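Extended Data, panel c. Modelled sequence:
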Amino acid sequence: MQGISRTLWEEVKFDNKNVTSVDWLTYPILDITETPESVEVVLINHPEIAPSGAGEPSSRPIAAAIANAIFDATGVRIRRVPFSPDHVKQALT
């Protein structure tokens, strides 16, 4: 869910001199009502491969997967997160 939130909503904002995203009340994150109803998890046993974690490393391909889904649906390639509704609409015009 963190990967989805980072891809669709999260964005640190800046002005010319400072970070303007300074609190959690105004920082955009995925709302519980926007999460998938279920998530399928598949564990693959590969004892010959060294452990690489299941946290941040596993969230990295999320943006690429969502970008590919948007491309498949629209024919438009979006390369900068977040893929917020406003950013997607801009890319489609």
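The helical segments are 2-8, 56-74, 85-92. This feature is highlighted in the accompanying rendering.
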